[in-house]
């Protein structure tokens, strides 16, 4: 059994602040809006809140481009609002996780303004510059650039700067000790305010080989292998641990875990004194085309990671966040017939695995994709610049739009659906991104009143996890790996054993299990009945049941 820790036992609720609750009618969610909803969050039973970045930012990438790490984005409120929010969170016994975006800053950060102003400016080495008289630097691919180029020419000093993300997100030079000291000071500033955890954005990319050697053709298909886990990453993490993490009762989670299981262990194993948790992308990457996923792969990915982390290290469990489309639309079934049952099944899954579950706002009520069909509806820079790039590359644009419709990040960023009033109670003004039309059917207020709602099922499942340590720490054993429809596993801790049965399909399916003889009452079930005989159980479409075996 792994060592115990509060951050292993929690359930994280992730809030995209722009879209959660607008308190002043400007159409943009804000900190006071979150404060208004703290009792709601408390009622979910979750005990950690992670907010996407709330720092001052020109919003080229919705806050992932930071212009001041010690100030709050004006649209979101003030530092006083932040202090009130943090107090409100702590008063309710909830921990707070801060997003730390330090692979890059905004080009509007004072550091970058200084850095680009002249070659001998003291901030010059805060970023990666390549003097143009040395010729063009070797190609680097960019996630968000409209040409797919990570080097941007800047005429002021006749040099290129590096940006793995957008042109307005220049990469910070971590090889410069001054940059690292700035980051640790920023983290201490927030830890002194009382934040309980840090989510390190795009962190596997910070350390770089600053000779920028030529990389093999097509390397971007294995981007993490080439961009991730740079030469000095671990020594920087040990430094961060010594200066910051070890001094407070905080944990830190890395976004990205390298490209191998060993990479991931090297980040989080306790003996390394680096980070406490990491999340890998293999689960969300299961759906990255119109073909969707297949259950065999899903089982394989989750089983592989669980097995590897059974004794040492700790990972996050999630199927959604602000970088992907909605969980029900990708992994469940968002048709009116199956939307609710499949949402309940997926939440049952996330909350019955080992690892800290991260639940994205709106998934507790089964929010679905918005399915835009015209490029003018999109707001996300990844979609807008991806569109420009596809056009200039001569891609099949009808296919491109179909993919965007299913997979775009905007699908997962629409306003929270609170009630059936105009704009779902999110704002009294014009929402920055439209509310999904289905808000009259899918909203918190209606689901609160319905004991069989997705929301009440979620609350019940969180409670079950809290009351059964076996669901947190218990050993995971996959049953009948080859079953085409059903994901079945047990969780075992000392004498406690729980059986989890999940039908991932839209048809009935049977599974034969000798264990069933011992079954009495289900702990939780997203249907009213259990259809079992002596040793066979038949699951309805997307049926999800937990049984106590011992
Ligand atoms: O994402 C980092 C990351 O690796 C992304 O490339 C992710 O795979 C991509 O967004 C999918 O389209 C983080 C944040 O989560 C993301 O929201 C930011 O846009 C990005 O860093 C830059 O800060
Ligand atoms: Ca607002």
UniProtKB/TrEMBL annotation:
Residue span(s) of domain Glycosyl hydrolase family 13 catalytic: 14-413
Pfam families reported in the protein's UniProt record: Alpha-amylase, SusG_C
Leader sequence residues: none
PROSITE patterns, A to Z: PROKAR_LIPOPROTEIN
Keywords (A to Z) from UniProt: Glycosidase, Hydrolase
InterPro entries cross-referenced by the UniProt entry: GH (IPR017853), GH13_cat_dom (IPR006047), Glyco_hydro_b (IPR013780), O16G_dom_2 (IPR045857), SusG-like_C (IPR056300)
PANTHER family reported for this sequence: ALPHA-AMYLASE FAMILY MEMBER, OLIGO-1,6-GLUCOSIDASE 1
Family according to the record: Belongs to the glycosyl hydrolase 13 family.
Protein name: Alpha-glucosidase
Organism: Gaetbulibacter aquiaggeris
């Amino acid at each position: 059994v792994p060592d115990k820790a509060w951050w292993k036992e929690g359930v994280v609720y992730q809030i995209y602040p722009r879209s959660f609750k607008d308190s002043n009618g400007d159409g943009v969610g804000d900190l006071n809006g979150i404060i208004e909803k703290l009792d709601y969050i408390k009622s979910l039973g979750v005990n950690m809140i992670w907010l996407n970045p709330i720092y001052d930012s020109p919003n080229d990438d919705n806050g992932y481009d930071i212009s001041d790490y010690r100030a709050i984005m004006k649209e979101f409120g003030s530092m006083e609002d932040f202090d009130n929010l943090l107090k409100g969170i702590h008063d309710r016994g909830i921990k707070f996780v801060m997003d730390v975006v330090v692979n890059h800053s905004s080009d509007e950060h004072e550091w970058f303004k200084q850095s680009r102003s002249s070659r001998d400016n003291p901030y010059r080495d805060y970023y990666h510059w390549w003097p143009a008289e040395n010729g063009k630097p070797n190609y680097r691919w960019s996630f968000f650039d409209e040409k797919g180029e990570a080097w941007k020419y800047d005429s002021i000093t006749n040099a290129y700067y590096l940006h793995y993300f957008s042109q307005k997100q220049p990469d910070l030079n971590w090889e410069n000790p001054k940059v690292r000291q700035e980051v640790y000071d920023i983290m201490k500033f927030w830890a002194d305010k009382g934040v309980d955890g840090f989510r390190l954005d795009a962190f596997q990319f910070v350390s770089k080989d600053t000779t920028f050697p030529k990389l093999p053709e097509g390397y971007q298909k294995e981007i993490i292998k080439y961009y991730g886990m740079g030469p000095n990453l671990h020594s920087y993490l040990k430094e961060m641990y010594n200066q910051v993490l070890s001094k407070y009762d905080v944990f830190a989670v890395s976004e990205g875990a390298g490209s191998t299981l060993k990479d991931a262990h090297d980040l989080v194993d306790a003996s390394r004194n680096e980070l406490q948790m990491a999340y890998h992308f293999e689960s969300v990457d299961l759906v990255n085309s119109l073909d969707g996923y297949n259950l065999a792969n899903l089982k394989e990915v989750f089983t592989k990671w669980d097995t590897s982390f059974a004794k040492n290290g700790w990972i996050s469990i999630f199927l959604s966040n602000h970088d992907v489309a909605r969980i029900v639309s990708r992994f469940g079934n968002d048709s009116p017939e199956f939307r609710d049952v499949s949402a309940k099944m997926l939440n049952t899954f996330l909350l019955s695995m080992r690892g800290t579950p991260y639940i994205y706002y709106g998934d507790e009520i089964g929010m679905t994709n918005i399915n835009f069909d015209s490029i003018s509806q999109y707001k996300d820079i990844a979609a807008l610049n991806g569109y420009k790039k596809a056009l200039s590359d001569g891609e099949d644009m009808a296919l491109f739009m179909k993919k965007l419709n299913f997979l775009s990040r905007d699908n997962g960023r629409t306003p929270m659906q609170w009630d059936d009033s105009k704009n779902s109670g999110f704002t009294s003004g014009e929402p920055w991104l439209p509310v999904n039309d289905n808000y009259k059917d899918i909203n918190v207020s209606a689901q609160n009143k319905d004991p069989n709602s997705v929301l009440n099922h979620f609350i019940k499942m969180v409670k079950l996890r809290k009351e059964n340590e076996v669901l947190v720490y218990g050993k995971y054993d996959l049953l009948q790996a080859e079953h085409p429809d059903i994901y079945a596993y047990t969780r075992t801790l000392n004498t406690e054993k729980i059986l989890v049965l999940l039908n991932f399909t839209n048809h009935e399916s049977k599974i034969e299990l000798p264990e069933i003889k011992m079954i009495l009452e289900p702990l939780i079930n997203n249907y009213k009945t259990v259809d079992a005989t002596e040793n066979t159980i038949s699951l309805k479409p997307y049926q999800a049941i937990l049984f106590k075996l011992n």
